[in-house]
Amino acid sequence: MKPIVPIVLKSERLILRPPLPEDAPHVECFVSDRRVAEMTALIPHPYPRGGALDWIHLSERQWLEGVKATFAICLRDSGELVGCASYFNDSERDNEIGYWIGVPHWGRGYATEALTRLLRYVFEDLGGRRVDTYHFAHNPASGRVMEKAGMKFVSKTPLGASRDGVAYDDVRYSISAEEWASRYSLR
C-alpha cells in the first residue's frame, strides 16, 4: 500500500481536506453536541474546552506518521465545515474508517458522499485491499450510510464495542478492493 500523505479530495458537493487550526471552533461546536459524541467510540462527552485544537495538532502528526488520514468535510461551494472523517492505518484500527457529521447537516447525504469518496481514495490512491468499519447498533443511520457507499454487512456482535466504559452491540461492515472496483468501474 502507498504511504498516507496529506491530500485534498473532491466529490460532487464536498471537499475533504486535512483539518486546519481555524476549524477548531466549528469542530468543537459540533462534537460538543451529545447527539454526535454518543454515536462515536472516540469523541468524549462533555468535550473538553480547547480539545479540538489539540485533536487537529494530533491529526497533523498522524498524517506525517502515516497512521491516520483525517479529513475535514467541507461544502464545496462555501467551504463550510460539516463534519470529519478518518482512515485508520495503525495496529489498533487497521484499515478502518470513522466519520461524523454535525447535527445541523444530518439527513443531507454528506456522510454517504464523504464515505464514498474516502473509500475511493483508499482503494484507488493508496492501493488498499479492504476497508472495515462499524457502528453502534443504536445508530442504524450510520449503517444505511455504509450500505449506500457499497459496504456489506459482516456481523453484529453483542457488546462488541464500548464508549466511556459502557459496552454496546456493534454492527460491522466491510468492502474489498475487488467489490469496490466491480461496483464503481461501471460508472
UniProtKB/TrEMBL annotation:
CDD domains: NAT_SF. Residues 14-178 form the N-acetyltransferase domain. InterPro entries: Acyl_CoA_acyltransferase (IPR016181), GNAT_dom (IPR000182), N-acetyltransferase (IPR051531). Gene3D superfamilies: 3.40.630.30. This is GNAT family N-acetyltransferase. It comes from Luteolibacter rhizosphaerae.
